[in-house]
Amino acid sequence: MANNGSSITAALVLVGNELLSGRTQDINLNYVAKRLVDHGIALTEARVISDVAEVIQSTVNELRARHDYVFTTGGIGPTHDDITAENIAEAFGLELIVHPEAERLLRQYFEKRGVEANAARMRMARTPYGATLIDNPVSVAPGFKIENVYVMAGVPRIMQAMFENIVPTLRHGEIVESVSVICDLPEGQLAEPLEKIQDRFPAVDIGSYPGKTSDTIRVNLVARCADQPTLELVEDALKQLVDSLGGNLLD
Amino acid sequence: MANNGSSITAALVLVGNELLSGRTQDINLNYVAKRLVDHGIALTEARVISDVAEVIQSTVNELRARHDYVFTTGGIGPTHDDITAENIAEAFGLELIVHPEAERLLRQYFEKRGVEANAARMRMARTPYGATLIDNPVSVAPGFKIENVYVMAGVPRIMQAMFENIVPTLRHGEIVESVSVICDLPEGQLAEPLEKIQDRFPAVDIGSYPGKTSDTIRVNLVARCADQPTLELVEDALKQLVDSLGGNLLD
Lengths: 251, 251
What we know:
2 copies of one chain form a homodimer. The longest helix of chain A has 17 residues, at about 230-245. Chain A is built from 9 helices and 11 strands. Chain A is of the alpha/beta class. The interface between A and B is large, with 72 and 71 residues.
């Protein structure tokens, strides 16, 4: 089953050569994924793309047509390699403007800190025409929203703060709850009866995830479903399965 | 600049609902990214997709047409949610067969460990017709290669072992070297002269990455280029830039 059962779908676009060169270990996907689950929105795909104009444009245009929400991270700083804002504007066929409120916020912030509001810094005030700002409580330079696309910073602390400002404005779907049954049986032994449970409960997304220990077996059976009573039935069935095969529940 | 300058490009497809639900923090992208850089292959995109038949098929077909190499991780275990092998076969229009050598290896392994070679376990012997196996020194169940697509396990330790068996078989491009100049100057101050350096050296990919500390400024200027003498010129230029702006080199 796809989509964690939610009818509201989202895509995440991680923009940045540093992720594709291995310089930076991404942690933004995991954060956004968890928070969307909390709010009943199904993250159904994520893409990591390079800082290339046409790639940013085509990716955003493809995904915004297909999803209720598209979130992007990265490429909205002051340096020459920050090219997300201009390419989001281009993707929408909109003019890139200096957003008056963003300009005001940035000038105020720079003045207070005694730093020059130079051209590079003021690049961070640019948005597509008609965009609304996403507040950045960490370092002021805002993200922005245009239609169903939300453009955020790449630095995790800033991204998270921006994202928390976005979440209350999103339509929330039915919350998909999950249960986790961890046991010491090998997947190869669990697989066939597990599939029978999956077949009995087609509305539940059941996944089997082997742990990373070497000789000790540790398999995590995860079930996801928006309907709590159904989920409880599945949890019972999974526990009975482990018991019937002579396994032990872990944790 | 895109592609780290290499003319050999690759895409990575991470298959798994557990990444999109936030249950699992991916570390496979970072591993593959670094190792490809080491071998002069440019990872230009990565996708995280759900365990959905048509999504796996369309993603693989789109990417294999565009890249020299496509690597996939996840979905080749024994349980019902492991559907990568059958969908790679479907994507190629090939029959899914029981690979004789994979079957032999698995039967031998199961026999030695005294576990039943049941139908679920033997699912792991299935490959598209004509695939060659990728050795799995960790848990035997092999990955496979069909044309330019390499299908690996999702568990990082197994994925890494499989990937290390693949690497020597790949065409290697010109190695892209990188230098890193870390300083205590804000990006907003560095940006304009940094862009001038980028303009002077268009063959070099210069990125600016602010650190995650809160009040201390720590910006990492990273330059990537296959030509070592050019890279040394850029490193000097970056250090001179930091010095001329009154900053300090860190680390």
